UniProtKB/TrEMBL annotation:
It comes from Oryza brachyantha (malo sina). One of its GO terms (molecular function) is oxidoreductase activity, acting on the CH-OH group of donors, NAD or NADP as acceptor. Signal peptide: none annotated. The keyword Iron does not apply. Residues 5-222 form the NAD-dependent epimerase/dehydratase domain. Transmembrane segments: none annotated. It comes from the Eukaryota. This is NAD-dependent epimerase/dehydratase domain-containing protein. CDD domains: FR_SDR_e. Pfam families: Epimerase. The keyword NAD does not apply. PANTHER family: NAD DEPENDENT EPIMERASE/DEHYDRATASE, OS02G0180700 PROTEIN. Keywords: Oxidoreductase.
């Protein structure tokens, strides 16, 4: 009998890729969703290889422990990705914080072997006093007052949620690990637009005529699921926070890559800030995940796949002038190139 893993938020951008990876590896997957019986929302999951035999969708409300108990019963592991992603405090704080705590405590009650929590880089770098040249690693936490003052409520809620998850896991003796993805891009399996993909959509439609003077870290959408798979299965991998990032890019470099891959789109070539030097992004290490066997895919690949996916799903008009992609190994750049 296949080992059962529960994936909360199974129909989301990352959640869908986690389900795909687990099914490919022979696991039985119990996916959760508030709209588990919605055929349109979850049709893409049921089309995955192995889904007919080993995927079950169940309706779960993270604030309802009874629904979580039913979902986790008999599961070897839980991968928790379900989370709203916006900055409306009245609608995000309780679902993220209480929902995460419920997942950890119910998993402990159910005898789950390990919980892998999908956190966010927003729990690490939101600190005005952090040394920009210091390495961002598992010891770093965002400053809650700074998150509140700048109205970054998603980062605020996720930081509190992760801290409380660690406290509860320690108190209950639960094996917990946190995978912390950065800006995630690549092929959309789900039919709906997701937040991180809108990050590049505006540069393809002409909505943005300039780019901002900022740097972000990026990763292929398939790499966080690979990281969670490695962390979930590897002995001794629990008890840690893993930064899941491929590289840091200045927005100008991101646009230059997009323009090179897709010259037919009106990708901006000018920075909105023409006075100050390019802002540096934070430094990080992804070596702990590489040690678990994660092989990060290069930026040209996930940008290419993201745009082709947007075309195929009708979010942008498909064109015929795109260059063929020849994926090459790219250096693990830690700062704007």
């Amino acid at each position: 009998m296949a080992v059962v893993v529960c994936v909360t938020g199974a129909g989301g951008f990352i959640g869908s890729w986690i389900v795909k990876l687990l099914l490919a590896r022979g696991y039985a997957v119990r996916g959760t969703s508030r709209r588990a019986d919605d055929p349109k929302k979850n049709a893409h999951l049921r089309e995955l290889d192995g889904a007919a035999e080993r995927l079950t969708m169940v309706r779960v409300d993270l604030l309802d422990r009874a629904s979580l108990r039913a979902a986790f019963d008999g599961c070897d592991g839980v991968i928790h990705t379900a989370s709203p992603m916006h900055d409306i405090p009245e609608e995000i704080i309780e679902p993220v914080i209480t929902g995460t705590l419920n997942v950890v405590e119910v998993a402990a009650d159910a005898g789950v072997r390990r919980v892998v929590y999908c956190s966010t880089i927003g729990t690490m770098y939101m600190d005005p006093n952090r040394d920009p040249d210091a390495l961002l690693d598992e010891s770093c936490w965002s400053d809650l007052d700074y998150c509140k003052n700048t109205k970054h409520w998603y980062c605020y809620a996720k930081t509190i949620a992760e801290k409380r998850a660690w406290e509860a896991a320690t108190a209950r003796g639960l094996d917990l690990a946190a995978v912390i993805p950065v800006m995630v891009l690549g092929e959309l399996l789900q039919p709906e637009m997701n937040t991180s993909t809108t990050h590049i959509l505006k540069y393809l439609t002409g909505e943005a005529t300039t780019y901002v003077n900022a740097s972000h870290a990026y990763v292929h959408v398939g790499d966080p699921p690979a990281a969670r798979g490695g962390v979930r299965g590897a002995p001794g991998a629990g008890g840690r926070r893993y930064v899941c990032a491929e590289r840091t890019l200045h927005r100008g470099e991101l646009c230059r890559i997009l323009a090179d891959l897709f010259p037919e789109y009106p990708v901006p070539t000018r920075c909105r800030d023409e006075v100050n030097p390019p802002k540096k992004g934070y430094k990080f290490t992804n070596q702990p995940l590489k040690d678990l066997g994660v092989k990060f895919r290069p930026v040209h690949q996930y940008l290419y796949e993201a745009v082709k996916s947007l075309e195929e799903k009708g979010f942008i008009k498909k064109t015929s002038n795109t260059k063929a992609l020849h994926v090459q190994s790219s250096p693990n750049c830690q700062r704007p190139c």
